[in-house]
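Narrative of accomplishments. A recurring question from our advisory board has been how the design workflow behaves on a single, concrete structure rather than in aggregate. To address it, we present the structure tokens for one chain from the evaluation set, followed by the sequence designed for it. No filtering or post-editing was applied between the two.
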């Protein structure tokens, strides 16, 4: 694809603008609390936008339309669970995060169990987040390779370099405000693409509706109870609720945002309203998938698509006019950079606060701020390496995604033991977590669908933790 001068100007202005906006917050930083939590005075609506932008990667931007193109609206059943899970986080976990001055989610485990539990959970987070977001960086680079005629290394470097500059300089305050801008940009890109699709399909919206009904694209409810089916009402409601409780309740990537809020009430508002925006966003992306189905029914490509994930990028490359194409490509960058910046800052926060500070003790805050920035660069380099390995060894990609899926359950189980079972000690909790991880290694090699992973892992961890506590009590 040959980009017009207007397209190139839009993309360059976007990248420079985001870097300039993020970098402008450097002068407001005095210590790591500023760097990691933005002084705890960010408005709830900005945090809400950051939550949505962070959980929306380029894979979402491209992959959700692909699901509707290839199948139907069944993915929306997961959103029901996403909403329920957020409510559980608000009722069960957020109150605990606002008792004290926490900088990471895993400090809650230190206060409840001890240092070993905190570091075990934090180390698990560091490994899985690095693998998951490293391969997400690689997958995003592949999209840009198609759209910009770059090679894979160039695409990876451009995304990472632009992101790490404002992340390094501006910290969490820069990340949240740039997330808000990036959310608006990629939603604008999606809406522009949807508008053009409606105009380009002969018969417009009426024809899209007709073809969607004729081919079952609008169907969204699957009432079958089958653990091997990915998208059913039950896997969406129950499995999705546990999945979201884990990702939004125990993952530093999300918890760090709540800790930036001015109060527990503001954190609650941010999380609950993010569920509403996510639901609307997924409806938009799924509808775009049906629009793409109608478009390519009338205008079939020269060769059939071998993968549904290629459909939306193909449309963006071939059907959008100059200028508009630049806006949408900027949206792809925005979706990628919002997730990567959040990943780097949360990795740095866990590294410094869960590992480095307890070892170094009483040092000036300026020292820890310098370390935080240095660790941010270090994790950026590590994720670049993971992205490069994913390019050369496909099994790394599969392993990274699989690990990220089946470790969330054990993490959630340990947190629930800490919050709901006050008599449980550190040994019992760690035994439950270890057994939960072991069981998930087995489950991951069965035909059980991934939405059930967190439910299985958390229940096994919680129950075995209680059992281990009972056995230890009997021996005493």
């Amino acid at each position: 694809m040959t980009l017009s001068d207007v397209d190139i100007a839009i993309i360059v202005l976007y990248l420079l603008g985001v870097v300039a906006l993020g970098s402008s917050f450097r002068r407001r930083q005095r210590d790591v609390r500023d760097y990691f939590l933005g002084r705890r005075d960010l408005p709830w609506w900005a945090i809400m936008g950051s939550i949505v932008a962070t959980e929306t990667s380029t894979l979402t931007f491209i992959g959700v339309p692909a699901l509707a193109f290839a199948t139907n609206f069944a993915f929306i059943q997961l959103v029901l669970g996403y909403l329920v899970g957020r409510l559980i986080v608000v009722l069960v976990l957020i109150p605990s995060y606002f008792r004290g001055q926490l900088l990471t989610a895993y400090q809650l485990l230190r206060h409840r169990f001890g240092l070993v539990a905190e570091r075990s959970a934090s180390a698990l987070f560091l490994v899985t987040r690095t693998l998951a977001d490293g391969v997400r960086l690689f997958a995003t680079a592949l999209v840009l390779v198609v759209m910009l005629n770059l090679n894979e290394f160039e695409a990876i470097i451009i995304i990472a370099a632009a992101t790490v500059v404002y992340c390094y300089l501006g910290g969490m305050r820069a990340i949240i405000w740039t997330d808000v801008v990036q959310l608006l940009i990629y939603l604008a890109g999606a809406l522009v693409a949807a508008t053009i699709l409606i105009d380009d399909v002969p018969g417009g919206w009426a024809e899209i509706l007709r073809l969607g009904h004729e081919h079952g694209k609008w169907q969204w409810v699957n009432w079958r109870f089958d653990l091997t089916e990915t998208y059913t009402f039950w896997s969406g409601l129950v499995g999705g609720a546990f999945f979201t409780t884990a990702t939004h309740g125990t993952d530093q990537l999300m918890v760090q945002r709540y800790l930036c809020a001015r109060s527990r009430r503001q954190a609650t508002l941010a999380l609950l309203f993010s569920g509403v925006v996510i639901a609307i966003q997924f409806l938009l992306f799924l509808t775009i998938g049906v629009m793409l189905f109608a478009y390519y029914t009338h205008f079939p490509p020269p060769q059939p698509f071998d993968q549904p994930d290629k459909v939306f990028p193909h449309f963006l490359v071939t059907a959008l006019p100059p200028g508009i194409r630049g806006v949408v490509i900027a949206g792809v960058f925005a979706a990628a950079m919002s997730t990567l910046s959040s990943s780097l800052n949360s990795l740095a926060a866990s590294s410094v606060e869960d590992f480095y500070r307890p070892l170094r003790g009483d040092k000036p805050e300026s020292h820890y701020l310098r370390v935080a920035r240095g660790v941010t660069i270090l994790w950026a380099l590590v994720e670049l390496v993971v992205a490069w390995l994913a390019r050369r060894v496909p099994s790394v990609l599969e392993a990274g995604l699989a690990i990220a899926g089946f470790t969330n359950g054990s993490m959630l189980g340990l947190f629930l033991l800490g919050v709901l079972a006050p008599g449980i000690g550190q040994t019992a909790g760690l035994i439950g977590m270890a057994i939960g991880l072991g069981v998930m290694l087995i489950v991951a090699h069965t035909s059980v669908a991934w939405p059930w992973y967190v439910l299985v892992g958390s229940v096994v961890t919680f129950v075995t933790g209680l059992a281990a506590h009972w056995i230890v009590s009997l021996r005493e």
